[in-house]
Amino acid sequence: KKFVYDFTEGNKDLKDLLGGKGANLAEMTNLGLPVPPGFTITTEACKVYLETGAEPVALSNEVSAHLEALERQMGKRLGQPDNPLLVSVRSGAKFSMPGMMDTVLNIGLSDASVAGLAAQAGNERFAWDSYRRLIQMFGKTVLGVDGELFEEALDEAKRAKNTPNDLDLDAGDLERLVDHFKEIVAKQTGHEFPQEPREQMDLAVRAVFDSWNTDRAKLYRRQERIPGDLGTAVNICSMVFGNLGADSGTGVAFTRDPASGHQGVYGDYLQNAQGEDVVAGIRNTVPLADLEQLDKSSYDQLMQIMSTLETHYKDLCDIEFTIERGKLWMLQTRVGKRTAAAAFRIATQLVDQGLIDEAEALQRVNGAQLAQLMFPRFEEHAKSQRIGWGIAASPGAAVGKAVFDSYTAVKWSRSGEKVILIRRETNPDDLNGMIAAEGILTSRGGKTSHAAVVARGMGKTCVCGAEELEVDTKRRRMTVPGGAVIEEGDVVSIDGSSGKVYVGEVPVVPSPVVEYFEGRMHAGADDADELVQAVHRMMAYADRVRRLRVRANADNAEDASRARRFGAQGIGLCRTEHMFLGERRELVERLILADTDAERDEALSALLPLQKADFIELLEAMDGLPVTVRLLDPPLHEFLPDITELSVRVALAESRKDSNENDLRLLQAVHRLHEQNPMLGLRGVRLGLVIPGLFAMQVRAIAEAAAHRRNVKGDPRPEIMIPLVGTVQELEIVRDEAEKVIAEVQAATGTDLKITLGTMIELPRAAITAGQIAEAAEFFSFGTNDLTQTVWGFSRDDVEASFFTAYLEKGIFGVSPFETIDREGVGALVRSASEAGRATRPGLKLGVCGEHGGDPESVHFFHEVGLDYVSCSPFRIPVARLEAGRAAA
Ligand code: ADP
Ligand code: MG
Ligand code: MG
Asked: So where does Mg(2+) get bound (predicted)?
């Protein structure tokens, strides 16, 4: 196996092996751009080191061979006293990762070679400046010396010279500083600073390997779901010097604005400086455009190179460069990070420039970005005081009064107050408070903390880990940097998309993207911004290529109409239980309490016209499109009063000797229907089989509503869906009954209704016997919420708040299986049931209803297994459309 690649040997597609930085340095080298020569030690070498605790045996010789070649090319040897070659040792994993080791520059300098470097450059100050930088970086990152100690020594030197500027330190000052730095190293590590050049290099390489497993790097990988066994590559790159005087410098640039996508000159430049000085902010940088005045020829060359890179990568790139005495060197490039809005704009701009096609454009954006653009946001120019900045854990803009415990959150929200729940961290006891709050703010914890996970699950705005905020729950207050205090009841605003926290009320504005989907803003209109136009075009690309249809979960005409505006192609799930709430609850109560057929029929007849009216509205809102109505699903006790409350009421009444007949019967019924485990109890199709007439009434309401719509020249397309079927026999019985009712309605109204009958597949047994079930079902709709619960054997209502954070932290799963479909388990059942169903009934219509229908990754899976549609909540529809397009493109 080959462990070392020269920059001339690699290319940008070898990121797994060479890391991102190495692969792109190779790519630039082969494009003929001015990259200082060097070589890359592969991630494979790192993996061997991490597994065995030692570098692979062959590595040292391979490095020597490449180093010798480099020395020949440069005409000088590493650390050679009279004419030293210096190199940088740079980490570079496949994904860039905070917490990984920083780069060490100027490797090869020593007491012996510093004079040689001075002579070589004709600049003594420069040589000592480079040496002190080496000891500082090496000491901190390789030897683990506290960086503050070096900073203090540097400050002291500047103080002695009475200047805030490091450029005022002369060669003598820097030579003394080097001595001081060496003392710090000796004192802190018990060893002298290593003088042997190759030893410096090898130690730095090993430190890069080791930095793969720092706690911060590990935590970051878990949170970002980056596999822990990739390892990092190490780049050895010959040094070029931006600290040689005013004709030298270093800078960073973007090929276009990462916020707007506009082409132009974006970047910063710092004269007479090396490496990290630009980002470290030690001196003020100048805008890149000023380089044109400072060094016109380097500037022109840089512009030329940036355009070459854009055309080559066909995307926005960011770059690092250095100018050494008027000669430009490229030190890094990569496809640059960008905001969600810029991603959409840039994708369409690149299509217009002819650099990419529509299919490629779809790969440049994603549903998560679109979802981000749909959240309401804080007004941009609002004058508000930021008091903290935490982790953007769950997007949205929330404003409310600060409360520091769940009890108060619930109490205040019941009385109509909007509250922000502020905790140091949350735990399962905070669940009620989290539900009641507009948003959640914590001062501890990261993206997988309890607060973050639960908030995302609930779609609630959350900022977590805002560490500068000192939360004192006992005294119900929080102290902000600078000492100001936020008391319970003070208004705060939190931005879950940026992680920023403000004091006071920041005005919230609706997202222009939602305004567009709602039809309140047209992409062609004058006031439509570029973003809306870009979204409009990307949606069109997605709609053109996608195979999956997208339906909505909607129970009323209002949601259905919104869904339609958002592009829904029908309703995939209408939950009829939502129609039984409110005043109708009493009718359901009567149905449940009925002792005689007559009583029951009476309750059902009272419900029938109400249901029918609901369906008429819904079918009207979705005229011409399929509407899947699920017959009653939840356990009946959900419609009855709470057992404890009722018991107390009955007991009190008894003690006053005026017990009420109805309450007593109700209590009996509540006891009778009480279940230890209602999720697995009397619900779904089981209700239909046990409560005579219930399903028949619902079917009749649907059929009569359809007949009515026909009569007014509508185009109703109802589909009836039976929930929680485990075996084909259940379905057959309900089906026979339903067909009879439909036939009656057809006869009575003289219409031909074409109502299809299908089932949900949401129990493992249904999935396993899908081939049989398909004999009685005209369509399947995978209820992946229940299927996930029953396949994993855990109840969503309980586990998300209890042990999921522990599971996420331990890496048992990277994301909740309720959020993204578990491909290997639940997904395998969806796949095999689809195949079995279609084997029985070719052309069987397949869909999915459940949260997964709007989850980007899950949408890709459903596309792969060949479903016909996904169904999701109205607000997720654009996301599902986009992702379905991306899956097909
Ligand atoms: P990071 O990933 O933190 O950006 P880099 O390896 O890119 O780390 O290096 C840090 C800084 O040092 C960058 O500004 C880079 O341009 C500069 N640098 C790295 N290698 C060299 C080199 N061989 N010559 C001059 N500057 C270098
Ligand atoms: Mg860099
Ligand atoms: Mg279900």
From this structure: 762, 786
Strand bridging mode 397-403 / 391-394: unpaired
One-letter identity of residue 444? R
The CATH number fitting domain 4-238, selected from 3.30.1490.20, 3.40.50.720, 3.40.640.10, 3.40.50.2300? 3.30.1490.20
Domain 249-335, CATH class in plain words: alpha beta
Instruction: Check for a shared fold between 4-238 and 376-509.
Output: no
- Cα 116 from chain centre: 52
320, 321, 325, 333: which to mutate for ligand 1, most atoms within 8 A of CB? 320
For 779-798, write each residue's pLDDT tens digit.
999 999 999 999 999 988 78
Tell me: ipTM over 0.90: yes
Domain 376-509: CATH superfamily, name plus number: Phosphohistidine domain (3.50.30.10)
- CA 216 / ligand 2 centre spacing (Å): 19
Return mean pLDDT, the chain. Answer: 92
Write the residue with the smallest CA distance to atom 27 of ligand 1.
275
Ligand 1 atom nearest to 274, measured from its CA:
26
Q: Annotate 222-252 with b (16+ C-beta within 10 A) or e (fewer).
A: bbeebeeebbbbbbbbbbbbbbbbeebbbbb
Residue nearest (by alpha carbon) to ligand 1 atom 26: 275
Tokens 């729940």, residue located:
421
Q: Are 126 and 248 in contact (CB under 8 A)?
A: no
Per DSSP (E only), the strands in 371-466 are 377-378, 385-389, 391-394, 397-403, 419-423, 439-442, 461-464
Q: 135 in the Ramachandran plot: left (φ > 0), alpha (ψ -120 to 50) or beta?
A: alpha
Residue pair 854/869 in contact by the 8 Å Cβ criterion = no
Q: Calculate mean pLDDT across residues 836-851.
A: 95
Strand order in the sheet with 385-389: 385-389, 500-503, 491-495, 397-403, 419-423, 439-442, 461-464, 391-394
Say how far apart CA 373 and CA 510 lie, in whole Å. Answer: 10
Q: Which two tokens stand for residue 854?
A: 């709007």
Q: What is the pLDDT of residue 584?
A: 86
* Mean pLDDT on 212-223: 78
Domain 546-635+675-888 has CATH 3.20.20.60: yes
Q: Where are the domains of the chain?
A: 4-238, 249-335, 376-509, 546-635+675-888
Least confident of 232-246, 514-528, 709-723, 837-851: 514-528
Determine the Cα–Cα distance for residues 62 and 70; give it in Å rounded to an integer.
12
What's the whole-model pTM score? 0.85
**β-sheet with 232-238: strand ranges across:** 4-6, 38-41, 232-238, 87-93, 104-107
Known catalytic residues are 450, 849
